[in-house]
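for the record, two folds in this file. i put them one after another cuz i was lazy. first one right below, seq on top, structure tokens after. the second one comes after a little note so u can tell where it starts
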Amino acid sequence: MFKGIKIRATVALIVFLAGLFYLLPSLTDRLPSLWENHLPKDKIRLGLDLQGGMHLVLEVEAEKAVETTLERTSNDLKETLMKEKVRFRRMERSGAQTITIDLPDSAAKSGFEKILQDQYPDMEVASSQILDGKEAVIIRIKEKRVREIMKLAVEQSVETIRNRVDQFGIAEPEIIPEGEDRIIIQLPGIKDTERAKNLIGKTALLEFKLVDEEHILEDALKGNVPEGSILAQGYGNTDRETGRRGNTVYLLKNKTLLTGESLESAQVKISDRFGEPYVALEFNAHGANDFERITGENVKKRLAIVLDGLVHSAPVIQEKISGGQAQITGSFTMEEAKDLSIVLRAGSLPAPVHIIEERTVGPSLGLDSIRKGIWSTVIGGLIVAVFMIIYYKFSGIIANVALIANLVILLGVLAAFHATLTLPGIAGIVLTIGMAVDANVLIYERIREELRGGKTPRAAIDAGYDKAFLTILDSNVTTLISALFLFQFGTGPVKGFAVTLSIGLVVSMFTAIFVTRIIYDYFIWYRRIERVSV
């Protein structure tokens, strides 16, 4: 029996020391250099409500991703029909998910349908009718594919925003999808909220388009925009080539020659000539080949660099550019250039997003929450501890020892697994304190009954633990199941409560049953006490 007590005591001590080991960095900043260099130094993560920061709910316009896919398909289909020599008179988008094509005769329709079936399995014919001697065919994206595109748009948006936030340097952000088209973002400790919103919300669609120099800009501004061209607003900087400054309007070819998907990296650099920051772009191997071909085919033409529909610059291509490098210039501040490089490296969002909910928690409010949370835990713990000592005497002291071990291990687990402690999480800890001693109350009351029945202390303790165990297990398991459901289906604050409650329940089972039993066995078998103070 002595050997068994020593083994169980060793296990309990190891678990307690492990909890203290992971908790220690959260208790003090004065750690030895050996610890700083080689041992875990992660502190308990504090949620948004404890350290301040920003809470955002974004809505993803997933339908725009469908429209973008349709636009690409329309351009590709047009080139395919021309390559396969299938005649058509007009092709244009006629809705968010449809394209209308005018075919001159049945032969053209037959060739078109074969191409659609063989090369565009995600498209289907929605309707067909004869108008003015020509057949107007309306095609659309299949419904299954639409749902896939919209789901993928949200998933890619989450990943892109997470990459941007990571590069921005925000510690311990929480970015999770919610529902079909929403994203919850929590940025603890953020101070420059406007900059963060701009960084997160920028679509960052980078495109390279040729300037339309074959038509007159003034005519386009009057409403006579030629087919295949679009008007685009300038970023508001100085055009190095023309010297024009302000919100310049450009007439661009509608066709996109290259996109940001071909980028390998984007870095901020300082111009030797103007002393201003600019963003240096480097393309991947495929993008570099495309950029070299594009510049080689369009020497002496102007190539516009367009970001989110705004033309940042439109320099004249002087010669074929090899090496896969380009640059975005403009009247940037260093901060603007850095943010632009971040969003370009992280990639563009597949669909626009907009903020539908915003909350900002000040750091002073967070500190106040921490103080109140600590005081609530301390006061709650002291009241429980005093009650246990008054009502159960020496056995109450044993329960309090287990309670201290419970708190140390629980907080150590939070630190070890990088769980986030929130204000509702502190409420979960306070509740755990009560539930931890609740198990001891059940055991002690059973021991009292056995002692009143005339049993010896050893027999009363054995019976108390054995008969109360199933009741304790049942109550803790049912509560744990409820906590797991809260974690699975709850939002941020509810999840914080569920995390600490779940961990606390498991730890309290260990301390209230395993640890207290070791102490009782020590006094019964080693000290051979003749009565139990309970």
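(here's the note) second protein begins now
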Amino acid sequence: MSVPIRVLVVEDSENDTLLLMSELRRGGYKPVYRRVDTPEDLEAALDEEAWDLVVSDHSMPAFNSAAALKLVREKGFEDLPFIIVSGRIGEDVAVEAMKAGAQDYIMKDNLARLISAIERELREAETRRERRRAEKALDESQERFRALVQYASDIIAILDVEGRITYESPAVERILGYKPEERIGEKAFDLIHPDDASRVAKVFSEHLGEPGVRQTVEYRVRARDGSWHYFEAIGNNLLHDPSVRGIVINSRDVTERRQAEEKYRGIFENAVEGIFQTTVDGKLLTANPAMARILGYESPEELLEKISNVADQLYADRARRKEFQRLTRLHGSITGFESELIRKDGSEVAVSLSARALYDSAGGLVGFEGMMEDITERKRADEALREIREAERRRIARDLHDAVLQDLVYTLQSMQISRRRAGDHGQNEELDRQIESLRRAVDGLRDAIYDLRLEGAQEQSLVRSVEALVDLNRQMVPEREIELSLEGSPSDSIAGGAALEMVRIVQEALANVRRHSGAHRVTITLGADSSCVWAEVVDDGRGFDASSSPGVGIAGMKERALALGGELKIEGQPGTGTRVLVRVARASASSGASGDRGN
């Protein structure tokens, strides 16, 4: 198959041009050519088309090969092969043409060398172009390197095989206070901290033996002012690269990071609270001395060695571990989460946990980290204080009930008996008002006595608290039938502060029944399902007018329900009784209980 070739012929003879083309075809080429014989035509041809080869006659009436060659080179075609094919040319002229840049000269009466000369020059021309492209790319690369190094925030240095500095970037002055040129020729290790020098020298020698290897090393360098800076350096052996011929060291000042790490390490090691990090499946990754001490271990290393799974080996109640994970996943972090953990000797320690969830770059949960505080003594003190307060509340309630309330009841009954004996009902309004006022005082005192007893409800479940409330109301109004029923498992759903708020709502509803309804029968229902917890109080009393303004008691019930994130419904019509329903989402009830435990 013929090889296409574009030939620009500088020749005044059309016949000689056709002879050249015929010779090219015999040599296996498929020429496309253009013949010119004046400087103007040559310049136009060079501007208008791309050529693979220039073949020029030496002597023409208006032109010659020397002028043609000069014009081609001046136009910038330094790699375009230029071959002289002439009928007469002296040896001296031919030598001068070769010196001027012509690749070869061939006599017209002997074209046997033409094809081989063209093949050779086309190959050499491509070689020259490749070399120029490589040189240009190298120049551009070096220029980019100089620009990058000039403005880089890191110190970039080039070392020779002996470790002497052959180049150092301007950043060295900003970071260490040295001029970029003042350390040229000096050993790079002279300013390295003595404790780091041997280790860095070893890394350097390894680089010398392994061209192309990259390695990171950290060390300290003395600045001009005598201070020590921590550097993280990456070395790259480019001794084999002709554009570098050295070991390139990129040094980043990490002094502030190291200081922060040392500060954190100091906090980590000396903190009073335990600091930890775990995986999602419960593997303990880090622990500080305080955590080891809280759990009864000699050291963090012993703790990490002995505890392979936090949930199985540390938690006295594994359900608390699940609750910890659930709340931390839900909110991203958690504070004041209380639990009992198992110490090395098998005893239990009460702790308060604060933690946050850890996620990878894809958003997947990978673990937890946080702090723990030993609250065993605080819990004991709180329990002792609670017992003291509970005993005091019981004493006050007992004294009020056995003394004050009994005296008031006796006085009320005496006044009522005296009023009936007098037989002048409606005639002594002042006495009637006094009897009614005393009756209200008795009822109020009974409520106050119950409130004192109810203060201990935070330590009880919802069901036990309401059972106590029902018993008290049965004592206060023995003629009224009061029933309590359960649906689901409300005791497992709510406790602590949230339970107390719901008990307060039930208490207020029963107080309204006792004071205003005239009911004969009251039904209290406590229930729970997968989504919510509820309490319902239904009576068969006189009901109420929905258009009337709500009293203080109803307003208080609504506020308590709102604080729990729940809803309160009060339904009734005159003569049909009343229904009070409070409903709280299970998550809010659990959160309220958990939050109360953390206080």
